Amino acid sequence: MSKSPPTIPAPVSGLFDRPLPVMVRVILLLICMLIPTAYVVGQYLMRHDLTQLILFGQMWQERALPEIRELKPAINSPAGFDGQFYAQIALDPTLRRPDLPRTMDDPSVRTQRIVLPALAHVLGFGSPAATLRAYALLNLAFWYLLFAALVYRLRAATIRSFLIIFAIMLTTGALISIQRSLTDLPAATFGFLSLGLGEMPAALLISISILTKPTSGLFLTRYLFPFPRTPVEWGKKLGAVLLALVPPTLWLLYTYHMLGAKLTDGDNLNFPFYEWSHRVAASWQTLADTPIYFQPFAITQWEWNLFEFLALMSMTFQGAFLLLRPRWHHPIWLMGIGFAILFFCLTHKTYVEQISYTRTVLPLTIAFNLLLLESKRGPLFFLYFIAGNIGLILTLHNMIGFLLG
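^ that's the sequence the OP posted. Answer follows.
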C-alpha cells in the first residue's frame, strides 16, 4: 500500500501582510486622525473663528460681503485662495443677492461648486459667523468620512493596508483641502463612496460630487464597462448617466439665469502631455539652478523646488500606472482612469504648483494606492509605493511643522 505524499504547508504570508494586534491598529488609526485634527484645533486656538483656514485675501476685502467685513476675518495673504469665494456663496447659496457676483474672481466657475456652500449655510442657521465656522470645518468632516470608508473597505489590519490609508489620507491633495477649505476632498469622497453602490444610487452620489466639483463627472467612467448588450442594459446605463447629469445641468442653467454666468470654462485643458512636458522641464531646470541649502524645521527654497519636482514625478508615476495597466472591468481602475488622463491634459494654470494639481486629481491618488495594494507584493510594492507617493508629503510636513512649532 503506497503512502500518500506529504502535505505541503501553505506559504506563510509576508511580515507586512500579517494581521497586527488590535491595540496596534487602534494606535495607528489614532495617529493618522491626530494630524489633521490637531492642526484644525491649533488653528482654532489661534483665533477661535477658523477664518485663517478659509484664507481670505487682502485684495478682495473691499469687495467682500458686508457680513464678512464685519467679522474681520484673518487676512494672511494678498490674494487669498479659492475657499474665500465659496465661503461667501455660503451666505446666500440661492445666488439672489445682487452684491454676491462682485465678491468672486469668476462667478461662472465658483457658483458651480454649490454643495459645500449650501451645507455650510444650513449648518450655520443664518448666522454669518457660524456659517464660516461650518464651512471651515466641513473638509475635516469629509476627511473623517473618507478615512472611515477606507478603513472599512480595506478591513485595515496589516502594515501594508495602513501604509495605503496613510498615503491617501495624508497626501497633499487631501490635506490641502483642509488647510485651505476647498472642494476637492469632499468631491473625491462622494465619488469614492459611490463605488460600493448600485448604478442608480451611485449616480445620485456622483451627481452630488459633480455639484461639489464639476470634474467629478469623470466618475461616470464606471458606466462604460461592462459594455451594454441589450436594450434593457442600455436603458439602465443611460438612465444612470442622466440621473447623474440632470441636477448639475439644471443648476448650471440656474446660475446662468441668476448671474448671466458662462456655461463653459475652456482654459484648463490642452492636448495630452503638451503642457505637462513643459512643466517637467521647467521644474527640473528650476531645481537644478537652485543652490542646495537645508535649514532645520523650515522649508528652504531648494527643498520647496525639490518637492515641486518630486510631486510632479509621483503624480506622473500614478497616472502611468493606470494608463499602462488597463483593467477595464475593475471599479477602482474605472474611478481613477479619467483623472489619470486629466492629469496629462492640464494647463499651466493648474500645473503652476503641486497644491493645485494634486487636489484636482485626488481620485487618481486614491485609485493608484488601492490598486497597488491589490496587485503588488514584496519589494516591488514598496518600490511602487515610494515612487507614487514620495513627492506628496509637503503639506503633511507643513502641518507637522505647525504642530511642533
